[in-house]
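Researcher: Quick one. two chains, 501 residues in total.
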Amino acid sequence: METVLASATRTVVIGPGRPFVIIGERINPTGRAALAAELGAGRFEVVRRDALAQAEAGAQALDVNAGVPGMDERALLVEMVRLVSEVTDLPLSLDSADPAALEGALEACGGKPLVNSVTGEDERLERVLPLVRRFGAAVIGMANDEAGVSMDPHDRLRVARRIVERAADHGIGADDVLIDPLVMTVGADPTAGRVALETMRLVRDELGVNLACGASNVSFGLPGRHALGAAFLPMAIGAGLTCAIANPLVPEIRLAVQAADVLMGHDVYARSWIRTHRTSS
Amino acid sequence: MPERFEALREALLALEEDAALAATRRLLDDGVDPKAILEAGLAEAMAELGRRWDRGEVFLPEVVVAAEIFGRCNALVEPALLASGRQEVRHRAVMATVKGDLHDLGKNMVGAMLKTAGFEVHDLGKDVAAERIVEAVRELAPGVVGLSALLTTTVPQQRLVIEALEAAGLRSGVRVIVGGAPVTEEWAARIGADGFAPNAPAAVRLARDLVERVPVAGRP
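Model:
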């Protein structure tokens, strides 16, 4: 199954037979005090710089998150979406749990963006899926519901299946639903990586939809985070992950993804790989 | 005097469970005051671990393992503590990660450290709705409520909880402290929280200061 995202002028296709798609994670004030302060002051220089740097580093879409405590998320997200659309032509991932903010961003965003995200909770599905349908967007569905996050991959598959079915009820095709298998840190639970990978295999084999995840979470609280992320991504790609919200500015991450593309046969005759190495040497 | 707790503290900080349990038993067998074992031994070691975490010297799995060892040592000390009748009325704390948020590591760390600091901790878990927190405050009448939120999208829930406590007429009877990656001092002030802490040891200091310096009548 293939998911098409688009800006006003550029399309990106996510699918199991294609090179892996990195959605740049940097435009997010969570845990970035300097960016949060700048947004609070109504300044957008870092947003502009992050957008350009990630595009330069090979991100094929950009995640945009406007969550600054105490600020009007809808207004800020709309402003950031406009700005990022001006400086790059990459499709966007609109990162909010607030339906009002998502609605504003969807109105402001050209092309076909990705809504990031909805959980399997009834109330959330009923508020977010109509927006996804109305604006013809794609959506990430998180494999948790009212019961919380299960550590049983079969429970997560069940939630994922429900999200895909509910999306269909709203007229959204399975090709426009990406499932997030939930990647938690192995620093707190040694089984977290294995559970995520097994969930990916189940969702891929049973539902056949695209899989997206936040790639940085897995290494929280551990040293050598880039190396862990760079090991995790190719394992996940082998298990069915087709895109990730990740930091393309980290060379280890970028190279690990490119190497996985070669090894999966998605970078045919290693053309991208060779180009990268020729220009960097 | 603290030297007699050195072996216990060192074993806990080295994550050596057998040695920590043996050191705890030895102290109990020697007739050492169980309250001192808890405070000068176990709690002090956990506080040191918290300081090392803040400095980036220890990593998350080490904190998880230390908390487990702490729990097992504490289980040895507790019967002696009860038998000694020296367990005083402790301050009570209600902890929760707010609705919509599944991140409970920070909340669990604060909860564990509050226990070591002598709080009776009631952990409501993660993804907890404001109504449940209000209910717990009404039922348990805690001195402190700790609200954790790790997502920019869930941080507004901290404000909702404070408003719900106000609406229920319970706000003035409890100290509300807030924390989590996106939370700032300024945010805490804006939503009318009683305090903000950037990390677990600071949260424990804050909670202790709040309940001891500005006690609320009739509340543990």
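The interface with chain A takes residues 59-61, 63-64, 100, 102, 105, 126-127, 151-156, 181-184, 186-187, 190-191 of chain B (CB under 8 Å).
Researcher: Thanks, that's what I needed.
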